[in-house]
Amino acid sequence: MSSDYKDFFKVFSQVSKAIHSGENTTEILGHIVRNIKEILGAKGCIYWIVDRQQEKIETMVSDGFPYRSLSNVNYRELTHIFDTDRGPIVWIEDARTDKRIPDLDTIGKRSVGSITGMFFDIIGKYSGILAVYFYAHKSLSIEETEILTALGEQGAIALHKAFSYDEKMLQNLRQMVEGFTLALEAKDESTHGHSVRVARFAKVVAEEMNLSANDLETIYHGGLLHDIGKIGMNDDILERLGILSRKEMDIVKQHPEIGARIAKPLNFLNDVVPLILHHHERFDGSGYPDGLKGSAIPLGARILTLCDAIETMLAGRTYFAKMKVEDVIVNLHQEAGSHFDPVVVDAFFTVLEARPEVFEVQINGAERNCLANYRQKMKMNGASPQQQLFI
Ligand SMILES: [Fe+2]
Ligand SMILES: [Fe+2]
């Protein structure tokens, strides 16, 4: 047995032990990259975890690379260098002349001879990319390739275990949030079930827009929690939303920021925070808290803004009566482009026409015609500002 193999078995058993004792994933990956670098006498080794669905790098653990080196590539650059279509192992024999690595300054290929990259499926949308960089031009022996594959695989197993565990934890935590929201809303007679319905409506509209399963879940939780910042606000103020003084209005308008502050420390709600914060922005930039405009408003927040308004219009409040579906359609048509994103309104109209029961309403022939007419005129819509009912 060569000394390479002895080292390899030592590392392999250490990593296995670390995985089974539940050691931190970053530490396990750190252990793997350090040892690969040493065993293969490489310049450096990097293990990236990429989210293929969101097209972003989740985590990167490296050893042997200075700042402003290959460790700084973004998702696009990374998948260009290690193009999955070329097979599970990518070999770049001469990094200095290879066109896949175009930028000398930011990628630092001046000091790299050969590069090898390998792909590993971790779980769902997550993949691992393991890259080893050598000083000189080098070709890997079969043994070295085996070592690399085995250690990379081991990293993927460690990540699979950690991610499955995280997923289970996330599910439990999210169920807790759902229970918490239901309990809160059950106590509030005026908005009974508002957030749950907003969450449900928003998920259906997002589905119609072909968003990913992950986005649907984020939007659903955003719906449940969008008004969480109203906790602790005076019930008397919340019950008089339609007739508030300017000072009282300013207090109520703080609820997106308060809500975002409540959710921010909870890591598992990271994606939900921007939705809570921006659910009162308006498409034309006249909303709050930041006056964001158009596509600068997160799409999930644009969906919530619309569904928040729809639920409020259909259910009514103590300060205004339930609206008829026809009036809701007219209202949305007028507000598309000013208050609401027209694309989101269009997705809502599509679902309303096909499955009105989703929104707990029925539509008659006249309303169906009205919907068809408005959908046709939608593209030429000139929006008009209206009284802001939805706070
Ligand atoms: Fe709100
Ligand atoms: Fe709301």
CATH architecture assignment of the largest domain: Orthogonal Bundle
CATH superfamily of the largest domain: Hypothetical protein af1432
Oligomeric state of the chains?
A: single chain
- Over all CA atoms, what is the radius of gyration? 27 Å
Total of DSSP H or I helical runs spanning 4+ residues: 15
Order of helices and strands: HHEEHEHEEHHHHHHHHHHH
Bound molecules: fe (ii) ion
The total strand number stands at 5
Question: What is the overall silhouette?
Answer: elongated
Q: Kindly identify the CATH topology of the largest domain.
A: Hypothetical protein af1432
Helix % is 40-55%
Secondary structure elements and pairings:
Blueprint: H1 3-20, H2 25-39, E1 44-51, E2 56-63, H3 75-81, E3 89-92, H4 104-107, E4 115-123, E5 126-133, H5 142-187, H6 194-208, H7 213-225, H8 235-239, H9 246-252, H10 255-263, H11 273-277, H12 299-315, H13 325-335, H14 342-354, H15 365-377
Bound molecules: fe (ii) ion (2 copies).
Residues 226-227, 255, 279-280 line the site of one fe (ii) ion.
